[in-house]
Amino acid sequence: MITVDDYFAGYPNDPGITDDFRTSAGAMLTFVNALLSHFESAGYLLAINPQTGTQVSGERDGGWRPRSCPTGAPNSAHKQARAVDVYDPEGHLDSWLTNDLLVVYGLYREDPGSTRGWCHLTDRQPPSGRRTFFP
């Protein structure tokens, strides 16, 4: 499972990490971790990212991103502590995941074709309102 510390590990001492961001991340990760637990109970294994030692994808930017981070849009859900990229190198999580499951867990994801090697999950509804959306 992904902890709040895992989520902020890319920028652990950044002064932009506020209590509100920690609260938002904790709430979002509660839903994400429930979904990941369901995935594991269905017989799948969660991969560990060798770069982070966690289930967060990327080197630094799969969890929270400071406003100054060039990765992602200025209003990215990552920069609001409302999105995480889950390490999914073989695409098993993305293949298993359905829009119905996203509804159950109150989550949205970027289309798997746009996120090869990871699964982008957020609790922030995209403008389209679709559970699986194109960035």
Structure description:
By secondary structure, this protein is of the alpha+beta class. The protein is 29% helix and 13% strand. The protein has one domain (4-133): Muramoyl-pentapeptide Carboxypeptidase, domain 2. The protein has four helices and four strands, in the order H-H-E-H-H-E-E-E. Strand 2 (108-110) and strand 3 form a beta hairpin. It is globular and about 40 Å long. It starts with a helix and ends with a strand. The relative contact order is 0.18.
Secondary-structure element series: HHEHHEEE
**Helical segment count:** 4
The number of distinct structural domains comes to: 1
Radius of gyration: 14 Å
Shape: globular
Mean pLDDT over the residues: 97
- Give the strand tally: 4
Beta percentage is 5-15%
Poorly predicted regions: none
Biggest β-sheet: strands ordered side by side in the sheet: 1-3-2-4
Largest sheet: 4 strands, mixed
Using the coordinates shown, work out and report the CATH topology.
Muramoyl-pentapeptide Carboxypeptidase, domain 2
User: How far from one another are the termini?
Assistant: 25 Å
